[in-house]
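Protocol step 4 of 6: record predicted structures for both targets in the notebook before any analysis. Target 1:
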Amino acid sequence: MSCIKDAHSIQKKYHKMMKKYWRIRTTNNCNARCIFCHSESANLKENNVFISKEYLNHFVNNYIKLEDHVAITGGEPLLHPEIIEIINIVCHTESQNIHMNTNALLLEKYTFLIKETNLKNIHINLASINTEVYEKIYGCRMIDLKIIDEASAYFNIRINCVILKSINDSLQNIKEMIEYSTIHGVELAFIENHFDSLNFKSNGLLFQNHFESILHGFNYTLLHVEAGRKIYSHNGHQIIIVAPCAPALAWNGNDNSDAFVVLENQTMKRFSIRGEVRI
């Protein structure tokens, strides 16, 4: 009986110490119409919903620890009317584990405001630098790429390139993305579209193997492996393979992490194999 009690105690302590991965959806509103969007809050799409500062302040102070990883996301977070205050609430410390996901359509307007906050990392969704391909994927005019250069003077920029079968998965597009990120000194992540992963039952393995072969051809070598991520490096430039991109697998949680999404309507989802969480 004592052994069982000790085991429960150890498990409880281990669970409490585990690093958590949080995605804070600031709004369901978006100024792009990405064809790969998984629309986690599709039932909220008819009305624009914005997370409240009061709720978020309470949540951050009570649940998010310094060692946790946090993504400020959406919809498009820069559409939140109080996004600078939101960033300040989340980034109350200078943690390197916090980033914001954005399509960058409004980044030029906000760059100088955001640089006064503690936010250090921005992930930009950019699936192609070809105008025709970009507009087909995002359903809007292509961003001015100089915005990325301007932002990289103040933030650690990572480009998230979601790969869509028969749209931007050509070797030409992949080569252009690698060359662009290398020349401009920004990190690049190739992310498998979760619909392709489901339809072709790849579970991310075919995707990773395919890109591993391509990166080897560009003289990239494997640096290290995280849960669901392989990080490659060449002359100091990093490229990450992430598979797959899906709500339930967005952080590819492993045995040492839990993945949560805090929704704009002040509710929370947990994506983990360990059961329900009530907060």
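Target 2:
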Amino acid sequence: MYTDINFKTKKQLKDAIAQGRKLTYYQPGPFGGSAPQDGTISLEGPHYPALHTWYARAEVKDGYIIKVMR
């Protein structure tokens, strides 16, 4: 899955969460629309067509990323 903001590094994502920003996410392609609203998701970035240079597991609640676990 991708975050709605195209973060170039995982640190940028973590910093945005630490600042209290409300970040959303989505599943691109033919599998889109099936992203869970609550639970744990896997993220990758930056967005295609750039090569993915970071991956993360994140906790989500009510459709927002609340914590990056690794």
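Step 5 preliminary note on target 2. The chain has one domain: 2-68. The beta strands are 2-3, 25-26, 39-45, 54-61, 64-68.
Proceed to step 6 after PI sign-off.
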